[in-house]
Each structure stands twice: as structure tokens, then as C-alpha cells.
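Section 3.1 - Work completed
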Amino acid sequence: MNEEKKIAGLYIRVSTEDQAREGFSLPEQEKRLRAMCEFKGYEVYNVYEERGISAKTGNYRPKFEELLQDIRDKKVNTIVVLKLDRLTRSVADWEKILTFLEENDAYLDCANDDINTTNANGKMISRILTSVSQQEIERTSERTKIGLAGAIKVGHIPHQAPLGYKHEDKKLVIDYATKDVAIRIFNMYHEGMSYQTISNILNEEKVLDKTNWRDSTIFHILTNEIYKGDFVHGKRTKKPTYYNDVVEPLVTKEFWEECQVQKKKNQRSFQRKLTYLFMQKLKCPKCKRILGGKATTKKNNNSYYYYYCNDCKITYKENEIEKIIDEYMDSIVEYDSIVNQFFLPMIKQKIENPTEELQKELKNQKSKFERIKEAYINEVFTLKEYNEERKKVEKVIEDIEDKLNTSEVCEKLKFTPNDILVKRDIDFINSIKYPEKYKSKTKFWNEYTREEKAELLTKYVEEIELTDKYGFLNVDYIKFRESVANVSNELYFNGYYDRYIPSIFGNIYGQIRFSEYLPEKEVGEQIMRLRQFYDVGYYEATYNVKNQVFYFNFVKDNKALVRVFPLEDYRKIDPDMKMETYNLGVLYVKEDDGTLLANEDDVFKYIPAECDCNVVYSKEPIFVETKPVLHYKMWGTFCYEVMKVAITYYKTDSKESLAHW
């Protein structure tokens, strides 16, 4: 090192980890560096102090940049640090610093490390020390990431709890006081509402006693993966880490994904003032692009709706498309009214709002209420602040008590998935026995308003692909929303829901209601429940797999087939259909008989109660064969289509679209 006067810039840095690990306080560093400069005869120009900043690559250090500028300006020619890792822990950064020092005739001196940058040997030692420091910080980072990953996987989410969640014992758990608000936001958006519309509604209703709901708040809720049970760490970095199923979800993954798709649809149609039934759902039969919508209003003030493809120069009337699909829309209405609006909310209430959790949350809120009162008594709160906080807690307590009451009612009612099948059987028999009353007491698709129709289609249907052959418009397939199809699939494959299968009975064409396998005990209980309302007959039949013809003389016997079901789980036993025969159960009623109840109107109001008695029912074995219809223009009902696994498709004249057996 030459003999020119050394003008020192003391660089001291500390991060939180350093203080905890080695006790490198800033005053201690400065004291030792000043003592070294005095001993070596260095003139101290300035002290450059960096607080709480790591030496990782990419971190901006303002004081270090100030030191470099002073070196360029020839105010400083020697950097003095306690250890080399105070300056950097990156080999790449150290090479840049070495080059900078050489270009500016400057040097480095370390109090604890024997570093001399004026010769090759000293530079080599500095590189070795920097490599060791870089390895240390990388290993520390790896250990931190491993520890953090482990914590996240068990629900320790290192973020503020979003709406509908709270931190409990360091874990993110469902907040039963606010979760319904978050779920409602997803439902409103799923139905086509915009961020602004949702925030306006929440403000008008003063939800959670707030009037500052913003569209940005709604956006962050709807795009947060935590609501489907997942978590993304480092979302704004180049390499975010995705963790699946780390917390209990508030919505299903399918429903969450559909909301992300809905975002694009909302953006494309937000300016629409008219209600289009099939907006963003119809695919052009030629180019497969989504059809646009337009409407004309005549002098009589009636509006007429059309869907068009600019590229293919074709236009279709909405009422013609509706005629094609109205064959199964009544079944969607039936499913929605029976399953989605009545039974599932009851079942979900018991699952999603367990009494024990609600009681625990109620206790927490009451304790919070007492703390608020105590704070007011101790003059921590003003009267105004006390009243504001009191009202918030009282509203939460009221909501929880309502949920508890509902939960208790559900527990008493004991609604189960079995009730869905019983209800659908009773409704089907009602439509046979009392067709006029059934029509008068049932709301059908053609009785819905445009708004109700559009809402129902938005709720269930993802897209519809059309075919246009020789001017004859038809539906190629319908894609249902996964969140709906999956629930239906689960009900069906567990035996608690039915579907229609077009079939030939001898020389008569018709449809049979088919449900999947249920254990014999549950089948018996179902039959005994139905017999409380109607004289339901039961056969055990044999299905011949090879011949596939189902003979049943409806005209002669005046019998109406209610439902057919397998007596064994052939989907598992015989997935390749190699068996010669299947054993089936057949339920039927005689069309001339009425209800067994004193008041026939009661069959429309109630469902049969569960039986406490031992199950006893007659078995009348007969040989029965069945053959599904392979060629038909459209499937008869939503029940058939929605039961397919995952995203459901309907293909015209396709054997693959038929029921497995």
C-alpha cells in the first residue's frame, strides 16, 4: 500500500439477524473502527451507518451508495469495515467492488479480517472469505425457507388474516363471525355482479357495520387463493411458491376458478343494460368463437334478442335457441329448487357451521364485549367510541346466535342426502298421480322472468356449443360449471340422486329414472319411507348385458316405473362390463291408486319421515331386460347430463354419452 494519506470512510451495517446472532451493534462497530483508524493514522472523513439492511444481492443500501460517490469525488480513498461480510456477502458483488476500488485508486481495510486489496494474494483471500459469507447466507436462507414452508403447510400463514379468517394459536382458521360475508361476495360475483356493484350493496347494507367497502377490496378477496385453501408465498417475486390445501377453504377450488373466468366475462359485458339469457355462453357452430349479443325494440316496446358471429356472418334468434334447450331446463329448475335451494343448504349448515365452533366463537365475542365495557369504565374509550364498538360486537353476537338457532333446527330436522332421493321420488310419483296439481304447485322454466332465467343459466351453465346443419339448429354439447357438476356427481355416484336414461321397453319408447348403488339397508329404508305416502311396488329384476332389452308391459299392468337401481356396485365389480347379467331393483306404482295419506295435498308439502322400525319389504323376482336408446336428438333432462364426472359434456348420437351400464 502506498504512503499517501488514508482518508477513511467508516462503513457500519447491522441487520436484525446479525444483532441476534453476533451482537454487532452499530455503536460497538464504530468504536472499534475509530480505534483502529487512530492506531494506523487514518483520517476519518465520515461514518456511513446502515440500519436493518441485509447484505444480500439486490438490496439497496443508500449509505453505501453515498460512500461510493464520496470515493468517486476523491473525498475518501479507504473503506474501513469491521469484517468483509459487513460490506457484502456476494462473490459477484465483491468482484464489482474490487473493480471499483482499482478504478478509483481506493482501498479496503478490515478490522477483524486480514484483508489487503493492494496485491493479488490479498484479493484472493478476500474472495475466499466472501465465498464463505455467501455460502453462510445461502444456507441460512435455505433453512429459513424450509422452516417457513413447514410452518405454512400446517396453517401458519405469515400474513394478516383476510376476511372470513382469523389467527388462532398462530394458525389461520375460519372466523365464523365473518366467513359468510366472504362467501356471499364470491356468490354475488359468480352470479355476474361487478366489484363496484358488490361494494355498493355491502355499503348500503352496512355489512359488518362498515360503509367503506371498495371495489379494490372486493378484487383482493376474489383473487386471494387462501379462500380455496391454498397460499402463495412471494406472490410479487419472480419465483413465488405455491402451497396447496394449507387452510380450510371457504369455497371449492372449482368455484374459485370459475370466479376468475367470470372476471373476463364481466369485463366484456359490463355495459349491457338489457338482460341476455346466453351472453358469453353460446359458441358459433362454424368457428367456435363466443357469439355476441344484440337486441331490437319494436314500437310495441317488445325487445327481441339475437346472437351473432361477425366473422361467419350468421345470426340466431334467442327464442329459437331457448326452444331447443327448454326440454331440459325444467329439470335444472327442479334440481335447483330441490337440491340446491332446499336440502344442500341444510346439509351444508351442519357441516360448515358446527355447533361447537359457533358456541366457542360466541363465547369469544361475549368476552370481547365485556372487555369493551371495562375499557369504557376505565375511560380508555369515549362514549362515542364505546357505542361504535359495542354495536359491532352486538351485531356479530346476533349473527352467531342466528346461526346457532339455525344449526339447532337442522340438527332436529336431521336432513340427509337420503332425503333428496326420497323427495325426488315423491315428486315424480306426484306428477303421475296428480298431474294438474303438480303443474299448479311447481314453477317451471317458462314461468321464470328473464332475470331469473339469466341468473339460473349463469349459475349452472359455462358454455353451449351449437350445430347448424342444413339450416337446422341444434345443441352439440353443454358444458356445466364444475362447482355444480361436482356436487351433482357426488350425490349421484353415492346413490342419492337419479338421472334419466332413454330406453326401449319392448316396443315402447320411454325414459327410466336410474340411481346408482346404495347398500340394501338404505334401499329398504327408502322403500319403507315411500310407502308411507304411496303403495310403491318393488321387483328384483335381471338385466341381460348381451341382449340389452328391457321388457315391461306398462299398458297391460297400468304400472308406472318410478326408478331402477343396481343391487350391487357394478361400477367397481365389473368396470369393463364382462358379466352376463346384473341384478336390479325396480320401483313402480299403479297409476290408478291415490295417496295413502288422508289429505292428498300433504304429499306436496312434506316428505316421509325416517322409519324406526325394522325394514321389511316384499321381493318379487322377475326376468327383465333393458336397452338404452342409442339415437336421439337431445338428452331429456339435466339430471342425466350433470352427473358426468368433472366438466360435463353432451354429445349427440354418441355411445360415450350413455350411462355406463
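Second construct:
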Amino acid sequence: MLEASGILQERDVKIAEPYRHELDELVAECHQFLPSVDELMIRRAFKLSYWAHRNDQRASGELYISHPLAVARIVAREIRLDDTSVGAALLHDVVEDTDLTIEIIRSEFGEQMALLIDGLTKIRGIYTNRALGQAENVRKLILSMAQDVRVIFVKFADRLHNMKTLESLPHSKQLKIATETLSLFAPLAHRFGLQRIKSELEDLALKILEPEAYSTIVSGLKGSRQERESHILRFIVPLRNSLHKQGFEFEIKGRSKNLYSIFRKMRIQNKPLQEIYDVFAIRIILKTGGGKGKEDCWRVYSIVTDLYKPIPERFRDFISVPKSNGYQSLHTTVLDSEGHRMEVQIRTQEMHEIAERGVAAHWKYKEGVEGMDAKMDQFLSWVHDLMENPDTEQATEFVQEFSLDLYTDEIYVFTPRGDLKTLPKSATPVDFAFQIHTDVGFHCIGAKVNGKMVPLSHKLTSGDQVEIITSKKITANPGWIKFVVTHKARSQIRHRINEQRREAIRYGRQLWEKKAKRAKISLTEEELIRLATQFKYATPAQMFYEISSGLLDIQDLIQYLRTGNPPESEEVEVEEESPISFLEHAQYSGAEALLINGERIKGIATVYASCCNPIPGDAVFGYTSKSGSINIHRTGCRNAAHLLINYPDRIQSCTWSRQKDVRFVVGLRVIGEDRVGIIHDLTTVISRNLKTNIRSITLKTEDGFFEGTIILQVSDLKHLKRLIERIKRVDNVQGVYRFEE
């Protein structure tokens, strides 16, 4: 074990020329972007890291020092924290990977640096210990953040560089890291307000998880680049002239939305890239600030809307009502002279820095952790509130709530009186009702949005005015649990379901006791347990519940107790919960339909997972089950994150081989306005026009709208996309979505 004293003075560390040059560039960036720089400390941290990793190499074959050096440059250039954070970035792996100890770091660089390195080491340890489980990982991550928030900023930089250099790793490990990045680190970066890093993490993860979609978007944007730049220039010129005339100091930038954001829009709206209109935006950054900053933003908004026609429903005021991560800006979408949509964002320089670098931007104005302002205090308060998690909640629920609170965009809706309520995106009138009051939620029977009746599952959008219709005779519907998104609504509905179940059990027991008394039967609790077991119930409570529900006849129990013979029962075939039967896959599937780790493997059972229903053309991976079969999942499957993160040793790389005359079962969910003949038109398009076999079709209507599921057979992803595009053209069809389960 190395001694914790004078380690650098005792060793002559000779640094190779390329790394000396990069170190000089790092120091220069620190002087450019940080408020103060201890250059000697940074050079000493690099020297120690270089020596400690002298025998280490990355998977690519380059010296390991290239990684901490790249991480430090991201911290200095992109996040712009302080020099201590840069030093921690240079040293973030030494305790985990080398003989250096925390005591050595403490003796060489002081207590603050030792705490940062210790926090970074603990976070790294979280992800190497699979047995901890994701929920516990997140808890530990938050605890380390709460101790010194700079730890997570350095971790963001570490993850960003790792994502940029994934190509040297096995494909299964790439999938695991990309999934983990998309499910945890990108949402965390979003919550911290690190917009650029969040976007880059998402795009890099998309490249691994959805390579076909990534390539389509990149080539599509590249092909339209010249036209797009010309269009932006025509839009900016009159705007720039007007702003100059009014005496503003400003900067105008045109920017494309990040690839993952475009991908989500394409998937949610079920549209190709050519039909996604808000792919790029104009950003106006005002140099003026202080007390006039907000006022100037509104003056610029007036100039923009004088030049171009605004779309009222696309206006967002995040200056008066900032987002929870401190983001402030005015957003509006206008129509230019050619009728094209253009999103315009207006903000001050300070607002822009916070929008780009979030909480980290406050280091520019305050010194270190002890100088945190109200926004930083607000953030740390959020962390501690998140930790106030009831002991009764299960760990998996904690992770779900955590991810939802971090990543979901907020919407702002109004009561009939005009009171503003903040809800997560995709919230429904039922979520709104529970936000108003628990009793309003329980007795909600209908809702009006902007004066029109809507289904209770309707997704609200910012600016909606919502009126809840209640009835004291009606109580919460258990089916609401399928579409509500807020924690309060879910927990209250779950509580009411459990309460109703307990009431049903009490009522079932009362019915039993009443009829048993008439039959002169008296049983002890032990005898009731044996009776329930004989009828295949785990507990008497379950038996009483089925009595109250009318699923079990008390006379059958009495007959058994008198004769000793249970009533004869017929075999009942139980249907799967999913409307899709995946048995058809067995006719066509098998290892020969796929290449596993680049080879055709025979004699191994291949199962196509019903949770995501993959078909040729989907990006997929294989998971080796305990029975030895290989389960094929789409990389975007809801179960993929759990499998890729927790079982990397069981993951197999899979690609589709070319097969003729192969059909795979797939499901589509179709929604729209109900009308006479809709089923006829749908079946005509699918069966007659597109020559596709329909396995089943079911539609149900409510409040003038229909929702249905169509189960059919397709050959591959191209076939499916062609079907979706054609069905969308049927009159009154408003949406066609791939049915995952």
C-alpha cells in the first residue's frame, strides 16, 4: 500500500508530448471559462493521475489517461464548475482502479477533493454491483449528490465521454450502458438543467439503441441542411434589422432540435421526419440583464409577433412561471411569409446560461458550495423531499416515481376560476381532479376541457381550462389506474381499491356466517383455512372476496362440508391477458431466423418476447433465460433497461437473417372519431388493398370516439410501416400505433 505523503515529489513523472499539449489546452480552457483557477493544483492532479494510470489502457488500446483528461475538459468547457471539480475529474478513477487511496488524495489535495473523489468512487461502485438492484442504486446516487452536488456534475462528464467512446466495447455492453444512460443519466441531466449534455447523452444512446432511426434522422437533416439554413437566414434578416433599430444588444442563433427529441416526436405522432415541422428553432439572446431583462424579453416578443403571425396555442411563458429546474424563456411559434412554422425562444444571457448549464451556472456568480443561492437551495430541497419516501413503498415504485418526477415535462392548466395548476405531461382530468382535492378525484364522473366534454383518459396540454363534473353517488373507478400519471392519483386509487377489497371481504364473511348459521355449521379459523385450501384459495380472505363477488356459491362450501365431496367443475380454458396470441411465432421462428453473435445457431429455442413483439427490421437483442432458451426483445422494450443493466452476462447480440414467406403476428391500436362503416373501411384497406391477413379486430366506442385493436400478420418492419401509413388515410382515423403487448 502506498504511503500518504509526498508521493509526487518522490517520483519523476515523464509525460508524453501529446498529453502535455492536451494538459496545456485544459489549463487554457480553465482560465477561459472558470471564475478562478489554481493552475498548480490542476497540473499536480494530472501528474498524479498520469502516473497512477501509467500501466492502464482503455478498450480502444489508447492510454487510460486520455479518459480522465477528456472528462476534465468537459467539466471545464461544458459544465464550467470550478477548478476543484476539474481536479476531481482528473482523479475520478484512481482510487477505484489503482493503488492510490483516499488518504493519499486527502494529504496531497485536501479534504474537499477527498470528499469529491470518495463520492465519485461510490457512484462508480454502484453500477459495478449488479446485485444491489436499480432502486438502491438510485437511492445511493441521490445520497452522494446531496453531500456535494458537484459529484454528479463530474459523473455527467464521465458518462458523456464513455458514451462517445463506446465503439470498442462488446455490443451487449454498449446496449447496457446506452440503456442506463437514457433511463437515468439523461433524466438527471435534464433535472439539473444541463440541456446540452442531456441532449448529447440522448443522441448517443439513440445511436446505439435505435440505429436505423438514428441514421434516417441524420441523413434526412443532412439532406435538407442547405435549404434549412437558407430558410433560417431569410427569417432572421428582417428580425435582426428591427432589433437593431430598437437599440437592442443581442445574438440570434438558429438551432436544430436534438435527434432524440425528433425521434420521440416521430414515434409519438407516428409521422415520418418530413411531417415533423418544429425540427429547428430561432433563439434570441439579449445582452441586457438586471432589472430590465424580463421587460426587454417582452418587448422583443412584441417585435417578433409584429413581423410574423403567431400561433396562440404554441405560446409558453417560462419567465413568469419558470420550470422546476430554473429554466426561464419565452417560447412562441410563428408563421413566416412562406407559411412555414418557426419556433422562437427569447431570453437574457443569464437565462441562457442557466438554460444551457442549469444549476452549474450559479457557480459563475457564487463562490463554491457555501455560496449557493436560492435556486440551488431549492434544488437541494427537491433532493431531500425525494428522499422522504414512505417505508411501505416498494423499491421499484420508488424508481418509477423518481424517473417520472425527473424527466416528465410540466404542463400548466387552469381551474374554471383561472387558478394555475402544475401537472406532469400526459396528465389527465382525473389527475387534475385529485390535484384539486381527494374528494373531487373520488367522485369525478366527467370533465370539460376548454368547454367541451372529453373522456377522463384525455391527455391535457398547457393552457387548458379544466372543469370537473362530480357526483356523490359515484366513487373512483379502478380502471383509472391504467392512465393516471401523478403519484397522488395513483396512490389514492390504489388505496381505494384496497379499501373496497377489504369491504368486499367483510361482506363475503357476513354472507358466509349468515348461511352457515342457517345450515347449523360452525367452523374455527383453522377449519376455515383448510376449507379455503380445499377450494384452491390461498387464504379465507380470498375465498370471502369471491363469495361477495358472486364467483363462489356458498352452497358449494356447505355441500362439501356435509358430504366431503367438492362440486364437479368443468375445465375452463383461460385466455391470455393480451389480445395478441404469439403462438403463431412458433411456426416460423427458430434460431435460423436470426444471427446470434453473428452465427446461425441451431438446436436452441428462440422465443419472441410478448412484451414488445419484435419483427424483422426491429433493433433487437437476445436474453438467455434460466431454461437455456433465448428471448428476443426490441432494444426499446419496456423490459430492456432491467435486463441490460442487471443481466449483462446473459445478453446476446442478434441480427435478422433474410427469410422468405415468413409472417409475424403484430398488433395495431387505432383511435379516431366513430362513424358508420369504419370497420368495413379498415378491413377493406388491410385485406383487399394491402393483401394482409387479419387475425382479429375489436373496436369499442365511447363519447363519439372509437378505440380498437387489430391483430394481423406482417413480414417485416417495412410491411408494418406501409400498413400504418395506409390506415392513417382512412376517414376519421386520428392515430395508428404499434400495440406492444
